[in-house]
Design goal:
By secondary structure, the chain is mainly β. It is built from 2 helices and 21 strands. The longest helix has 10 residues. It starts with 30 loop residues before the first strand and ends with a strand.
Length: 303
């Protein structure tokens, strides 16, 4: 802290020098009262945790108060606990999500995430997942093809089996027996669409939802009656701005069903989601090529 910056009372916002990120008043003036509740840190990794339920909120950052403004308490890792009381040395910060840049919009529109998938999978055709034996996956897995088509879901010796999502990467090609369908999300049996599934065109518009038998839709295709379908397919930026999500959403706009997060540096997470939280088995591909199979429950990593 520079000399002459010490004060015994609050100061107007933004009148001192910002930190290295250009943000003002992060290590002084008043502490920041956070929306997160105070509690013991969990032992497993978390992503944007909200903290436990309780009465006390977390406060972070330094303050002018002589008893609380020590260098130790200015560390970003240091937390204090406060109730909803008028503390003169505690304030709060209003933040607004960053608008998506034109570059980010073009990144999605150009399907550059498919190139990142190819880079991560590291070959023309590669399969990864739980129960991977000599390149053959039985269980949850992912396969990326030379034409930039991609599958994530249940597999039996690399044959689609169980619930999964298939995305066609080649121009002028569609999901078999489903004209204009670029994305199929639903059930498979021995490599054939079977049971209930949904088809989307290249814009993400739902064009069929219903039963399949022997790889073919049962009933009118394309259809306009989507009664009972509570999800939608698309892509969105994670609130942190670090990840992009591609897959199913519920009507509240939260990831729900089958999908994956992808970061521009090549890190990816394939799993299923329940009301915005990761749930069940998943696959983590690191940008350095390392692959980990993981499990989540209510958004918390358990393995």
């Amino acid at each position: 802290m520079e000399s002459g910056y010490g004060h015994s009372t609050r100061q107007p916002v933004g009148t001192k020098q910002p930190n290295e990120l250009g943000i003002y008043d992060m290590s002084g003036n008043v502490e920041e009262w956070c929306s997160d509740m105070f509690g013991t840190y969990p032992t497993l990794p978390q992503t944007n945790p909200l903290g436990p339920s309780g009465q006390n909120h977390v406060a972070r950052g330094g303050t002018y108060h002589s008893n609380y403004g020590t260098p130790k308490m200015c560390r970003v890792s240091y937390r204090k606990s406060y109730t909803l009381t008028d503390w003169p040395w505690v304030g709060f910060r209003l933040a607004h999500p960053r608008e998506e840049t034109q570059e980010e919009k073009e990144w999605f529109e150009a399907n550059q995430w498919r190139d990142l998938l190819l880079l991560a999978m590291n070959s023309n055709t590669r399969s990864i997942g739980w129960g991977n034996t000599k390149g053959q996956v039985t269980g949850l897995g992912a396969i990326y093809y030379y034409d930039k088509s991609f599958y994530f879901g249940g597999l039996n010796n690399n044959i689609f089996n169980g619930n999964g999502i298939l995305m066609i990467g080649r121009d002028n090609y569609s999901i078999s027996n489903c004209p204009d369908c670029k994305v199929y999300i639903g059930n498979w049996s021995k490599g054939l669409k079977s049971g209930t599934g949904a088809c989307y065109d290249e814009t993400g518009k739902l064009i069929y939802y219903g039963k399949f038998k022997n790889d073919k839709p049962v009933g009118t295709y394309p259809s306009t009656n989507f009664a009972g379908y509570t999800r939608q397919y698309g892509n969105a930026k994670d609130p942190s701005g670090d990840y992009f999500y591609i897959g199913e959403f519920n009507r509240d706009g939260k990831p729900d069903g089958t999908g994956f997060f992808i970061r521009k540096n090549g890190d990816m997470v394939f799993t299923t989601y329940k009301n915005g939280l990761r749930e069940g088995k998943g696959i983590y591909i690191h940008s350095n090529g390392d692959i980990a199979t993981e499990k989540w429950k209510n958004g918390v990593l358990t393995k």
